[in-house]
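Please, structure for the following, as tokens.
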Amino acid sequence: MLNYGNIFDSDGLDYTSYRELVNKLLAEGKTTGPDDSDAMLHYTKMNVQRMNRVDKTTVLNDEMLKTIDQIKGNYHFLVISEGWCGDAAQIVPVINQIVLASHGKFDLKLVLRDQHLPLIDAHLTNGGRAIPVLLILDENKELVLPKWGPRPDILQHLLAQWKKDSTDMMLIAEQLHGWYAKDKTQSTQAELIQVLGKLK
């Protein structure tokens, strides 16, 4: 039985600490997780730039702000991520903006997938350890909703098609990030509005 509260309190990093860890490891020629290959370092460097951009450009839409405003309780957001993960680079900064806009109703901690395999294995996507995954805990730090992630549904379907059409992971990554750039966080926000709308 997973103790979400213990993971959140003992192992969780706040957003700033998570970003600092990724940067520190990069400076040492490493990334999060066990694979420090050139490809993983390349992905991580690109993701730092993406996170910087999403941090600066994300504007929460009116429906999101209204949804946050209507929530009365306090909740803890536990996100499973990794520095090398492209989807995480596009989504985690949006979740952080939602937390900042909640004025203390929400707080956010991130844990690394490969350091928490029992946690990710309890929240697989189609049998895989896809990330990022958002878990929402109540005031007692117990899980209150099914997980959200690793990406908006529309992109999940597109990605499956792209993988049928090509085995070139660089091309697929280009298509993925091109989609995120055009979407400007709106699909991510729309799905997270649905999730947050279930909170009291």
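The chain has a mean pLDDT of 96. Strands lie at 75-81, 106-112, 133-137.
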